[in-house]
Amino acid sequence: MDLVGAVKIFLLCCSLLCLCAATASQGKENSSEYRYPFIRRASSFSSTSSPSASQSGCHKTYDYIIVGGGTAGCPLAATLSQNFSVLLLERGGAPFDNVNVSYLKNFHISLADTSPTSASQLFISTDGVFNSRARVLGGGTCINAGFYTRASTRYVAKAGWDAKLVNESYPWIERQIVHQPKLAPWQKALRDGLLEVGISPFNGFTFDHLYGTKVGGTIFDESGKRHTAADLLAEANPEKLSVLVYARVQKIMFDTAAKRPRAVGVIFKDENGNQHQAFLAKRRGSEIILSCGALGSPQMLMLSGIGPKAELKKLNISVVLNNRFVGKGMSDNPLNTVFVPTNRPEEQSLIQTVGITKKGVYIEASSGFGQSSDSIRYSHGMMSAEIGQLSTIPPRQRTAQAIREYAESKQYLPHEAFMGGFILEKIASPLSKGHLYLINTNVDDNPSITFNYFSHPYDLERCVEGIRMVEKIVRTQHFINYTKCNEKNFDKLLNMSIKANINLVPKHTNDTKSMEQFCKDTVITIWHYHGGCHVGKVVNHQYKVLGVHRLRVIDGSTFRESPGTNPQATVMMMGRYMGLKILRERLGAAAGV
Questions:
Q1: Is 528 a catalytic residue?
Q2: How many Cα atoms occupy the beta-carbon half-sphere of 252 within 13 Å?
Q3: Is the pTM of the predicted complex or chain greater than 0.85?
């Protein structure tokens, strides 16, 4: 089946997923939806500060306009608002009253929902791997697995960050939204298996990135409620912060009269499709800051005229600055998993335990299935994180009719049907690199993304090493005692895993005989993609866009490698860190932070 045909089948499946959601709501407006008075719908925006200002042609201006209210944008906005006026523009809705975002047991649902108002926007890389990007205030912290762990000291030093300020910024996040998890049985079994195969020492519960086995933090509390980057807005100055949701920024406006272009404002559309303009104050130091993520920030730069000249001209985009590096160096940490069945239902767990090896491989785990009674219900399919997705249908038999029948039959399956868990193997700092290109000038459409998984032989070598580690863990006495899995033939587990891992990569008959082929054919994502606006190529070490004034990029698009085992802690820290740095550089001791 060609890629186009496979995508058609996928979209058919997605339409089935949404049938049961037609009368439900992911974002009906009510008194609790926005939580804070400074959060409003984009349609409420007025660019004039008063009726007299409107008559005189004056516009209300801001010291900072932040595009993207995600993992970095929320802490950045909260921090800058302590001393300056800030406008934060988020293309999605608010997470506070969305049960499919708010609870661990509904983790899979936002990923399965492909409707236009979903907190998650599906994209498929040209490699054939299904992926997601956040579309909600709080960004990736609203749709991820919740694991919280800091970057290594080596990473901090390599990034050129001030270690003292870094160590001030992490705790600011941790005391507000991070918790110590109660270890699920599956996670305890992984911990014991990791230690039995020599991934030691055991470092206990810690946020630090340390070789060995550890238990990390989580943004889910004891009741399973998610706490996100949007919660960090509680620390904002409500008199100086304005947050607009459903504000889809179209492009950045520049003054090109001088030799070097200068950012002056943004054009955005509200939820009704009406267009607005927001302007920067003319004060020295005022800036537009992109925090749109690894896909959104390079996309926004190119839509605004900053990028490879030839590509921009193909789409009739006026060139503000020719920079051939925008959208280059894209990378995603490849994930491969092994499904291990049990003879009983497993308690649901996401990432809690991790093995950090010196070979550049991380070992994690997930288990079970859950769903709250008041959530949007789906016939859970391709994009769900539940156990055994589509595993009853061999890949070559996944016709449109088979997928339809499968989706309908699974709609009312009891939770007890999902018995077992996954052991996950992720490659740290992949050397394989890809690129991002615009397909059109519609900001709502995904750009074309290629990650080139395993194109570098060292990445493939480490994947094989990781799968062999997983095999050793499955065979440990601790793990066998827990799972009661008497399966002696690891190839059979790999066969089950081939069926459970869904992508559009062509399968081969020797998947279980060649570990290299297994890695290539079953590659999926853990949503840790990064790059596209690298330091030294697109931005400088202060994250200011090279060649223009009053424009920065502060998010994971600037990373050359993903920090720690899971990046969300460091992306949030980066927002706080850069906010503090900007305030102190502008105001010194008078900043008061």
A1: yes
A2: 37
A3: yes
